[in-house]
Amino acid sequence: MLVEKGKKGILFVVSAPSGGGKTTILNQAVKLCPNLNRSVSCTTRPPRKDEADGEDYHFISGQEFKAMVEESEFLEWAKVYGHLYGTPLEPINEKIAQGLDVALAIDIQGARSVKKLYSQAVFVFIMPPSLDELKRRLKNRQGGPDHSDAARLKSAGEEISTAVEYDYIIVNNHFDESVDQLKAIIAAERLRRSRYIIHTETDKNG
To answer: Which of 6, 4, 10, 21 is nearest to 127 (CA)?
Structure first.
């Protein structure tokens, strides 16, 4: 007989080079996977045309962000391409304690910080098919290219090299296929033997 160990949820961390598709892939997986909740990060950058406050990010001022840092309200935070990004800690702790799975779409810096605090989290890297394809996606991203896209592309090679630090790698050739692969990872982790205690009839009878 299988019995789950406690009722804690699983924390999934999804990273990619900027423009790699981590947010759109994760958002679709959240829609299709029961009991999977997406953590919404805070950022000081302005929203792009296709982004909604409270859904894609919490768009806040630098002053608000600083106050949250001072109150230790972030699981992790970093300055990326001139803007601040942070993952609110309390909503994650609450959901995981309730047995709900939580997924984060964060950059490599953030993932490394999370690993120090949540070593049991599951880490997934979204790999672009090539740097040329990543460049095309950055250029065509809704909202248009911005001045930081050149810096993002320059950093992509170094970011891709960090994929060895992750538990799983998804090559984002086709969106639907990448979503299916992420769903498969989530399903597999939920079935991992280490999350269960196995009781046999001998155990029961003592």
So the answer is: 21
